[in-house]
Write a structure and sequence with these properties.
By secondary structure, the chain is an alpha+beta fold. The strands form four sheets. It has a six-stranded antiparallel β-barrel. It has a three-stranded mixed β-sheet with strand order 15-16-17.
Length: 446
């Protein structure tokens, strides 16, 4: 039967009644009997005095009992888990890139302070000069007065940045200092008042005067994460630099709160049930996923790139850019090569351990025809394509065109309609050993 700790009144009553009973035992002179009901009885006070101490002792024993087991412990849970090499995920700072605009050749210093509209502060982690930069345009299309620009590589721009277009044969596309709205890492849009022929032709360039600078939050926590539509303001003005600072497409991500204790407990207990030791590749993978905030998928390649070496690759699907940065890779390497953690690679020489992001293969899906081409159908198709990429991508896993087409064919929108379509893709997309596919743009007919 479970044991129930007595309450303080119960302990007092037990001490007083037991004491009176033993003192009065065998006493025949009624004048010498102790009456516990008499107010201010000195004996009762003496009997009750130890009750508080005994109650505290019982509570302490109860506390010790709770703290002995990882299933119930609170104060000692992290210490118990640490003996087995499992640690509570700590809060972390948000990191990303900001876009500074202003006069060319103006320097953005290291540790410049910025602030969000919510009052969270950030600082620059590098220094560089604002420059006039230009890059190639892959295509320009128009729908009504909205112009969509697709670039040959990541444009590194942000919402609100002023962009100029040059080289289009249709001169109405050649604009100067147009504020843009970001659509993806390699596309943006702006408006014009003319209706030139679409698509645009020519050798087209886009240009902007800006610099992309790494930043991180001053404090830790999820609240510091910012989307690409966010802006920051400079706390210290710099001549020649605009006070509004933009966030690039991938946002400022990676900020996390201290892991909830009950989530940590469940993760630790589940890890202890695993029959994969941390000195195996599968065990190291589980250890990384269970102990490092933000990492959602990891791969451990033994004897890679040669015998005795290890390569660990990982992604962070919860971030706007799932491909980790070099800094995040370095942090993970320091963690898993720490000998105190007892991982598969803990006793390896650091030069034998490679921790790196996989190479991202970005897939653009272009519909050459689509029979029902309205917002409802496009949204339903997009949702199905995203589901396909979440379930059918892995390290080194090809994108099978037939499977993608069947997924799109299975789309049923909210009006119970199915699409008829053709894609510009004609073959499977081959993914090599250290690559992983990500969906980039979905381009529907205009």
């Amino acid at each position: 039967m479970p044991y129930t700790t007595p309450t303080l009144p119960q302990i007092r009553e037990s001490l007083v009644s037991s004491g009176i009973r033993y003192v009065n035992m065998g006493q025949t002179d009624s004048t010498k009997l102790i009456d516990g009901s008499i107010a201010n009885n000195g004996f009762v006070a003496l009997a009750e005095a130890p009750a508080g101490a005994l109650f505290d002792q019982w509570k302490y024993f109860e506390y010790l009992k709770r703290e002995m087991l990882p299933t119930t412990s609170i104060d000692s849970l992290e210490d118990q888990a640490g003996v087995d090499g499992y640690y509570r995920k700590q809060s972390s700072k948000s990191k990303g890139y900001a876009i500074f605009t202003g006069l060319a050749n103006t320097n953005i210093p290291l540790n410049a302070l910025l602030q969000s509209s919510d009052g969270y502060q950030f600082q620059t982690t590098e220094t560089n000069d604002i420059t006039l930069s230009s890059s190639s345009v892959l295509s320009i299309t128009r729908s009504g007065f909205v112009v969509t620009v697709t670039t040959t590589s990541n444009h590194n721009l942000a919402n609100g940045v002023l962009v100029s277009i040059s080289g289009a044969n249709q001169v109405d596309y050649n604009v100067i200092s147009k504020p843009i709205q970001i659509l993806s890492a390699n596309s943006f849009k702006f408006t014009i008042s003319e209706t030139p022929t679409t698509p645009a032709t020519g050798t087209i360039l886009f240009s902007a005067t800006y610099v992309k600078i790494g930043i991180e939050s001053v404090s830790t926590g999820v609240a510091n994460n910012l989307g690409y539509a966010s802006t920051l303001s400079m706390l210290q003005s710099i001549a020649g630099v605009q006070s509004v600072v933009y966030i690039d497409y991938y946002g400022v991500q990676g900020g996390s709160d201290l892991e909830d204790l009950e989530i940590f407990r469940a993760r630790y207990l589940e890890s202890k049930k695993s029959n994969l030791p941390r000195v195996s590749a599968g065990g190291l993978k589980n250890y990384i996923l269970n102990n490092v905030s933000g990492i959602t998928r990891a791969w451990v390649l033994q004897n890679n790139p040669s015998v005795g070496y290890f390569t660990v690759l990982f992604v962070r699907d919860g971030d706007t850019n799932p491909i980790p940065t070099t800094l995040q890779a370095n942090d993970l390497k320091a963690f898993i090569t720490n000998q105190d953690n007892g991982c598969l690679v803990a006793n390896s020489n650091p030069f034998q351990v490679y921790v790196e992001p996989p190479e991202a293969v970005y897939v653009d899906i272009t519909f050459t025809t689509l029979s029902i081409n309205d917002t409802i159908m496009r949204d339903a198709i997009t949702q199905n394509i995203d589901f396909f990429f979440s379930k059918n991508t892995d390290l080194g896993q090809d994108i099978i065109l037939g499977e993608l087409i069947n997924t799109i064919k299975g789309t049923v929108d909210s009006k119970n309609r199915t699409p008829n379509f053709t894609l510009s893709l004609s073959t499977d997309i081959v993914i090599s050993t250290k690559q992983i596919a990500f969906r980039r743009n979905i381009i529907f007919p205009s």
